[in-house]
Amino acid sequence: MNDDVRNIVLGVVAAGISAALGWVARTYLWKRRLRRKQSFFGLPDNSESLLVVNRGAGGPELAVMRYDVFALLELAALIKDCNAHAQILPHDTARQGFGERTEFCVGGPASNRRMAAHLSSLLPGVRVNVDSEPGPDRGSFQIGSERYRVDNGKEEYALLARLTAERSQNTRPVYLFCGQTAITNQATTRYLARNHERLARKYGNSSFALLLKVINSQAYGPDVVELVEDVTRAAQTPLPAAATPRNTHRAS
């Protein structure tokens, strides 16, 4: 074997080793990223999860509003990426506890009994105005001493929460997507899909509650979302019986 052939062989071998090492490194990083995502969502391989949604008022069959369907699609993609499975349940048939399976609950308490129960037991510092009569406070959020009113199509608020039962390290989380309008439910799930890595780095597997604001949804749909603030402490602190908000937030 002359020098030219030997150099060619050595080059091919070196290229093969480099390619193999690169593949191993990429695979390791991909698996580590996947494990972090699975841990944040509580979705190990082949695990089961619940998607709890509103039942339409038009009849006994399961009917979901268009924007809530889009929200479910956002969540279904996240669940599939974690190599997990999902079961869809109407809110009025999900009569079970939480912690055994990761739960994604979509919709406000006015139309989602499961959401109302979660807010009452897990976020006692949050009140949502569910009055059916028109009025300036209809659909508004009260979180602690602050009130956030809805201005349809211009400024609308939503609550994104990741919650786990206290004093339990093995419980699966409950994710709440509680918007003032249907499109804000989708905006909240999209925000989670886009920012879950940052949220996982910041909060790990701890509980959190974030107040989001959807800007000009009549023009931009669910895409323009701002983080207003972390309201975890206020949302988890029970409100006094006669609590009245000091400040009102509304579109200018």
From TrEMBL:
Keywords: Membrane, Transmembrane, Transmembrane helix
Regions that span the bilayer: 6-29
Protein's name in the database: Secreted protein
Species this protein is from: Streptomyces purpurascens
